[in-house]
Design goal:
two-stranded antiparallel sheet; mainly alpha
Length: 258
């Protein structure tokens, strides 16, 4: 097999798209995965893609090469960002619950997002990652970036960046993220609101009671009791989240590849 400048350019463009996807997509972008493994995995996927490309680049100039590299970087970044925005609904739901229960003052470092997250958000994120890996949904994430080369050729530009379709769709993804996140937190938020009302009535009728010593443990106990009870519904909402995430990835490919 002869390796010429054209083959190296094709490999470079594919490698840039896959690498930018790996640094933004859920699970693979987590800091718990060493960068060496991410780069090695991107090299392997790039080598597999280059051999089956339908329209490889045969000739190029220096100016067009720079533009194509930037375009590939943005394509991989946008595809991974769409999945990451929707996956952030899990952490958003945990943040709402921690604010209601009083855990918002405590925070943990979340290696998946590289930021500090609350206790419940971290716990929900661990469950979501385990469910995603147990159902082999991460294979669909990899399949999504590989399918992007069928929709968006390495030598084609993306007109959707200029007509506003891409920004509109990203805003719709943010809207879906908030909606799904609120649906995940709504049962417990409603329960804790009723508990706050009941405890407020008790505090008014029995003023001798030490509110700050008794009420927080009671709320925490009710929170975890209800959490165990509604955990199956959280798994169902994860199914809805994953379906929405993969559907959004498919939609963004159609928008950019049109």
């Amino acid at each position: 097999m002869t390796i010429d400048a054209s083959s190296l350019l094709n490999f470079l463009l594919v490698f840039v798209r896959i690498t930018s996807f790996m640094i933004t997509v859920p699970v693979f972008s987590g800091r718990q995965i060493p960068n060496t493994y991410k780069i090695g995995f991107s090299v392997v996927l790039s080598g597999l893609c280059v051999g089956v490309m339908n329209e490889p680049i045969q000739s190029f100039s220096m100016g067009s090469m720079v533009l194509l590299i930037f375009k590939e970087f943005m394509v991989g970044l946008v595809i991974g960002m769409v999945a990451n925005i929707l996956f952030y609904a899990v952490q958003f739901a945990g943040a709402l619950l921690d604010l209601q229960i009083g855990f918002s003052m405590a925070s943990l470092f979340d290696p998946t997002f590289g930021t500090n997250s609350q206790l419940t958000g971290r716990f929900k994120n661990i469950i979501a990652v385990l469910v995603l890996l147990a159902t082999n949904a991460h294979h669909l994430l990899i399949q999504g970036i590989l399918a992007s080369f069928d929709w968006i050729s390495v030598q084609a530009f993306v007109p959707a960046w200029m007509d506003g379709q891409l920004s509109t769709f990203l805003l719709e993804c943010v809207q879906q993220m908030f909606l799904i996140g609120f649906m995940m937190a709504a049962p417990l938020i409603g329960t804790l609101f009723i508990v706050d009302v009941a405890l407020g009535i008790i505090a008014r009728t029995v003023p001798q009671m030490n509110v700050f010593a008794i009420f927080p443990p009671v709320k925490i106990l009710i929170h975890f009791g209800m959490y165990i009870f509604i955990l199956p519904s959280f798994i169902y909402l994860l199914k809805v989240l994953f379906e929405t995430m993969f559907g959004s990835m498919n939609s963004i490919l159609k928008i950019m590849g049109a």
